[in-house]
């Protein structure tokens, strides 16, 4: 190139810089520094090449250093190809905001869709989904990559449990819009985002449609699509279909095993989860951090304390790793759920790292279930220091006081919440009927079928009484008379969802409900009876696990 004079031409130089940067970055920089007046095209090539390197942390500084040289060079200006790579490399929200300001300064409002998509991805990465959606809506003819960016943003940008449902709904609505464009056809990335949204919502019909689409158009069932389908079927209560997908995968990686072990866990099949864990090791796949978490959780859901403890100890003994915070969290939950609250507290205090709020909340939850008020008060004290604005912490302790009729203490906790401006997250339940999702809040009367729902609730209440059901009024956290407490329990969100399903769905179809909070013991008992009285399978996914109600029994065997 030197002897033929090609080093004076931008295009061959850009190819040389790209190749050199992939093989030996210092050599590429040496070449670049010999170029008398590098064009913005050469700067863009080198910045992009540098950021595609495996050593991202080090190369990010170099890329922004090159960008700084562009800003100092009065003979060139950044263009639309300068910014997309830099947005991907932004290490903080503030850096990205500064870069966005540069886009407006140097490109004005006339930048292309490529830059717009990069901005969209950046804001989604930092949980600014509203900004990301506005940027998406400004693109006149989004291509498949842009649609996928927004759909994936909805899948990964959730910042709280409260947002989870609404964001997943947005993803399904966006996909419906995408289908109206005949020029854009879904690919693997699209379907993973869609299936993930279906998993969050428990939207089985839409999830099945996505699976059929994969089969119909011969889309490769790779690790990512397979894992998403396993997770979706598990979270929609169809464990058999989840295992069928897992079993039919031509190859399985650690992600597939993690999804299937996790599926067995949340459905209460701890022994099957352990068998699959052993099978995975037999296949010479090394467990990762997530594997240990889902396996220990599976043990926790069914009280396999010794087995779960062995999994915890194997992290260090068999694999030479140090247990992480999340592994200690599983151990605390395992012990606490089994009633070994004192031992759980000792393990928490003896950890080599500082416990976070999740661990203290797990201990508080165990103390509440097993009535250990002393440990509960200690746990809440730490939680108020770590998360003074999280309503669930106050509610757990308030529940403990209410269960033993300490109403003054309940009022004190409620006053603390009020003083901090904290509101309790309302319970909500989703139920799928004829392919449509219906959401209910406690005491909800906004549904178009509200009159028929409440009429059915009254009928259900009478039938429950005939079968000897006595409402567990200790679940009501107000100092009111027993009759009022019974009414309050009747209008819990899952009761409304069940009543609607009994009215609106086929009498042979399973009723599938997703609840955002832990199901209360009274609703748990009444749902067992309803499944027997009306001959319906009722599948409830609460914040913790699945409950399969059939013929008056629950799959959790009252251990949850």
Automatic annotation (TrEMBL):
Keywords annotated in UniProt: Repeat
Q: Any one Gene Ontology biological process term?
A: RNA modification
Identify the stretches annotated as PPR repeats.
253-287
Q: Pfam families recorded for this chain?
A: DYW_deaminase, E_motif, Eplus_motif, PPR, PPR_2
The signal peptide here is none
Q: Which residues form a coiled coil?
A: none
Q: Does the keyword ATP-binding apply?
A: no
Domain DYW, by residue range, is 468-560
Q: Name one GO molecular function term.
A: zinc ion binding
Q: Gene3D superfamilies in the record, alphabetically?
A: Tetratricopeptide repeat domain
The record's family statement is: Belongs to the PPR family. PCMP-H subfamily.
* Protein name as annotated: DYW domain-containing protein
From which organism does this entry originate? Gossypium aridum (American cotton)
């Amino acid at each position: 190139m030197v002897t033929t004079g090609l080093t004076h031409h931008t295009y061959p130089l850009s190819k040389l810089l790209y190749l050199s940067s992939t093989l030996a970055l210092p050599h590429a920089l040496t070449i670049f520094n010999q170029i008398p007046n590098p064009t913005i095209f050469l700067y863009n090539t080198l910045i992009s090449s540098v950021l595609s390197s495996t050593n991202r942390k080090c190369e990010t500084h170099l890329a922004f250093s090159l960008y700084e040289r562009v800003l100092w060079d009065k003979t060139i200006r950044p263009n639309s190809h300068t910014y997309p790579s830099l947005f991907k490399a932004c290490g903080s929200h503030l850096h990205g905001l500064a870069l966005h300001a540069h886009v407006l300064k140097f490109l004005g409002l006339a930048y292309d869709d490529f830059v717009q998509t990069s901005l969209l991805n950046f804001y989604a990465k930092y949980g600014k989904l509203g900004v990301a959606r506005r940027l998406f809506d400004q693109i006149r003819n989004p291509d498949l990559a842009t649609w996928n960016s927004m759909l994936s943003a909805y899948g990964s940008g959730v910042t709280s449990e409260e947002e989870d449902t609404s964001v997943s709904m947005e993803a399904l609505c966006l996909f419906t819009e995408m289908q109206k464009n005949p020029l854009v056809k879904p690919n693997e990335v699209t379907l993973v985002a869609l299936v993930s949204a279906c998993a969050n919502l428990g939207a089985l019909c839409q999830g099945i449609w996505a699976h059929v689409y994969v089969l119909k158009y011969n889309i490769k069932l790779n690790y990512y699509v397979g894992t998403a389908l396993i997770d979706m079927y598990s979270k929609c209560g169809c464990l058999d279909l989840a295992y069928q997908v897992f079993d039919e995968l031509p190859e399985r990686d650690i992600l597939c095993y993690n999804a299937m072990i996790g599926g067995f866990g949340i459905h209460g099949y701890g022994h099957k989860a352990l068998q699959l864990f052993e099978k995975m090791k037999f296949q010479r796949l090394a467990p990762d951090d997530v594997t240990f978490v889902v396996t220990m959780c599976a043990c926790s859901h069914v009280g396999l304390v010794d087995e779960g403890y062995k999994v915890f100890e194997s992290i260090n003994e068999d694999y030479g790793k140090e247990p992480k915070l999340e592994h200690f969290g599983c151990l605390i939950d395992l012990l606490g759920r089994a009633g070994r609250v004192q031992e759980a507290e000792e393990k928490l205090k003896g950890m080599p790292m500082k416990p976070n709020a999740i661990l203290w909340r797990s201990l508080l939850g165990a103390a509440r279930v097993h009535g250990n008020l002393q440990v509960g008060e200690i746990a809440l004290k730490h939680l108020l220091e770590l998360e003074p604005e999280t309503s669930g912490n106050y509610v757990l302790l308030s529940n403990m006081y209410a269960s033993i009729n300490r109403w003054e203490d309940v009022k004190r906790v409620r006053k603390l919440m009020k003083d901090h401006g904290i509101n309790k997250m309302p319970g909500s339940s989703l139920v799928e009927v004829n392919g449509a999702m219906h959401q209910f809040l406690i005491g909800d009367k906004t549904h178009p079928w509200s009159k028929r729902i409440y009429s059915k609730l009254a009928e259900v209440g009478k039938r429950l009484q005939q079968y000897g059901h006595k409402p567990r009024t200790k679940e009501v956290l107000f100092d009111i008379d027993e009759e009022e407490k019974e009414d309050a329990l009747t209008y819990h969100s899952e009761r409304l969802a069940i009543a609607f399903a009994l009215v609106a769905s086929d009498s042979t179809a399973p009723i599938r409900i997703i609840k955002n909070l832990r199901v209360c013991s009274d609703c748990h008992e009444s749902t067992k009876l309803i499944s027997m009285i009306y001959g319906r399978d009722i599948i409830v996914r609460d914040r913790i696990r699945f409950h399969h109600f059939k013929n008056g029994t629950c799959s959790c065997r009252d251990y949850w």
